[in-house]
Amino acid sequence: MVGMNETTKTSKTWYRRGGVRALLPLSVVAVIAGNAALAPTLASAAPALPPISAQQLLTRIADSHVDAFSGTVSVTTDLGLPALPDLAGSANPLSLITGTHLLQVAVNGPTQQRIALMDQLSEYDLIHNGRQLWTYDSETNAVGKGTLAATGTSGTAAKDTKDKAAKAAKAKELQAEQKQEQALEALTPQAAAQQLLAAITPTTRVSVGSPRTVAGRSAYLLVLAPKQQGSLIGEVEISVDAATGTPLGVTLYPVGSATPFFELSFTQVDLTAPSASRFDFTVPKGATVTPLDGAASGSAGQSAGSDHQSLDPQQLGTGWLTAVELHGVTLGELSQALSATGREVESGNSSAATSPEADGGSQQLINGGVSGYLNTLLGSGKTVSGAFGSGKLYTTSVLTVLITDDGRVFLGPVTPSVLEADAAKQGTK
Description:
CATH class of the largest domain: Mainly Beta
Distance between the termini: 43 Å
Largest sheet: 12 strands, mixed
Strand order of the largest sheet: 7-8-9-10-11-1-2-3-4-5-6-12
Radius of gyration: 22 Å
Helix content: 10-25%
CATH superfamily of the largest domain: Lipoprotein localisation LolA/LolB/LppX
Strand content: 25-35%
Shape: globular
CATH topology of the largest domain: outer membrane lipoprotein receptor (LolB), chain A
């Protein structure tokens, strides 16, 4: 880890300038997001760069306007979980939670992104081109297709959505589509850095580390660290391109460790607009195409969906002690769902709605092996009780999860005592 050589107070408003914005809470960044990185061996000798203060570097990032680029991103994640089974050589999005992977990325503004997860024997693609969304799993030759709602509402559309129920349904659909689009954007060093920088508060210590070279480009190093006790994140490093101010890499370290648990960085990058053809997608011969927006499920699917309680995520805590509360998830139901899904996939008797092809290959993520793996994790928790009721607590070096018996999940990159205190404040359901 690079030592800190300068500390400064950070303005609360600096990140509102330029194109910097928050896509996800800091707690989610620690769990998901990108989950990627530059291996230490890829960094070369430190370049000679003019001195810069932390505030000047923050301003340079905020003023950066690089929104078109392409390149290769190296992904390494170690959340303290065992290695996933049966995923070797498979370009499986679930595999991003552990191990090292490569992503091919191309971005041209907010309306065109393409991310390809590359592995030894297969490829998984996410493509956003205008209003079109595509996913493609080469292993199963399965395609997912979706269409984003147009920005704004035409007069005709407004008439069609006069009914309150229709408006609410349309709003939920748009929100889901926006989340899909944000998931695409989050798989780049720039987006991961924006998520972290947007969470800067007075509880953050900001400094500048030693310059480094990333993907052949000279970069400054911005270092963020919590002032608060109770966070499992000890330090965040953001590599910032010296010429343009755009983030080239992000590295997160656990408290008291020099070994990162989350790294995302370019190994090769071109900061110019990719060719328009990079965002074209043609359905491969013989591929199975399934709607991403659930249109194929019809009214029956909508009815089934209405029977399930919304997760209704609620943010708890602030700054580095941010956690999330989810609703409608019990330990028993979660275990049963995982076991049932694993049995269906293993037996080959899964319905169209749950077959590997039904969602562009995403169902393939939960096969018998992964189901057993998750069930093993669910059985390893510690039984706890308090003002929140009772439940099971799961901890790693960078993540704490509490699943209560009344159907709630609390999680975040915080210590067990912090998470239990958050849960206690929420009381029982």
